[in-house]
Amino acid sequence: MGQPEQPEGVEESTGAQRPPLRVGMVGYAFMGAAHSQGWRTAGRVFDLPLRPELAVICGRDAAAVRAAADRHGWAAAETDWRDLIARDDVDLVDICTPGDSHAEIALAALAAGKHVLCEKPLANTVEEAEAMASAAETAYERGQLAMVGFNYRRVPATALARQMVADGRIGTLRHVRVSYLQDWLVDPQAPLTWRLRRELAGSGSLGDLGAHIVDLAQYLAGEPLAGVSALTETFVRERPLPGGAARGLSAATAAGTGQVTVDDAALFTGRFASGALASFEATRYATGRKNALRLELNGARGSLAFDLERLNELWFHDGTEPDTHAGFRRILVTEPDHPYVEAWWPPGHGLGYEHTFVHQARDLVHAVAEGRRPDPSFADGLQVQRVLAAVEESAEKNSVYTPIAV
Amino acid sequence: MGQPEQPEGVEESTGAQRPPLRVGMVGYAFMGAAHSQGWRTAGRVFDLPLRPELAVICGRDAAAVRAAADRHGWAAAETDWRDLIARDDVDLVDICTPGDSHAEIALAALAAGKHVLCEKPLANTVEEAEAMASAAETAYERGQLAMVGFNYRRVPATALARQMVADGRIGTLRHVRVSYLQDWLVDPQAPLTWRLRRELAGSGSLGDLGAHIVDLAQYLAGEPLAGVSALTETFVRERPLPGGAARGLSAATAAGTGQVTVDDAALFTGRFASGALASFEATRYATGRKNALRLELNGARGSLAFDLERLNELWFHDGTEPDTHAGFRRILVTEPDHPYVEAWWPPGHGLGYEHTFVHQARDLVHAVAEGRRPDPSFADGLQVQRVLAAVEESAEKNSVYTPIAV
Amino acid sequence: MGQPEQPEGVEESTGAQRPPLRVGMVGYAFMGAAHSQGWRTAGRVFDLPLRPELAVICGRDAAAVRAAADRHGWAAAETDWRDLIARDDVDLVDICTPGDSHAEIALAALAAGKHVLCEKPLANTVEEAEAMASAAETAYERGQLAMVGFNYRRVPATALARQMVADGRIGTLRHVRVSYLQDWLVDPQAPLTWRLRRELAGSGSLGDLGAHIVDLAQYLAGEPLAGVSALTETFVRERPLPGGAARGLSAATAAGTGQVTVDDAALFTGRFASGALASFEATRYATGRKNALRLELNGARGSLAFDLERLNELWFHDGTEPDTHAGFRRILVTEPDHPYVEAWWPPGHGLGYEHTFVHQARDLVHAVAEGRRPDPSFADGLQVQRVLAAVEESAEKNSVYTPIAV
Amino acid sequence: MGQPEQPEGVEESTGAQRPPLRVGMVGYAFMGAAHSQGWRTAGRVFDLPLRPELAVICGRDAAAVRAAADRHGWAAAETDWRDLIARDDVDLVDICTPGDSHAEIALAALAAGKHVLCEKPLANTVEEAEAMASAAETAYERGQLAMVGFNYRRVPATALARQMVADGRIGTLRHVRVSYLQDWLVDPQAPLTWRLRRELAGSGSLGDLGAHIVDLAQYLAGEPLAGVSALTETFVRERPLPGGAARGLSAATAAGTGQVTVDDAALFTGRFASGALASFEATRYATGRKNALRLELNGARGSLAFDLERLNELWFHDGTEPDTHAGFRRILVTEPDHPYVEAWWPPGHGLGYEHTFVHQARDLVHAVAEGRRPDPSFADGLQVQRVLAAVEESAEKNSVYTPIAV
Question: Min CA distance, A288 vs chain D (Å)?
Answer without folding.
Answer: 6
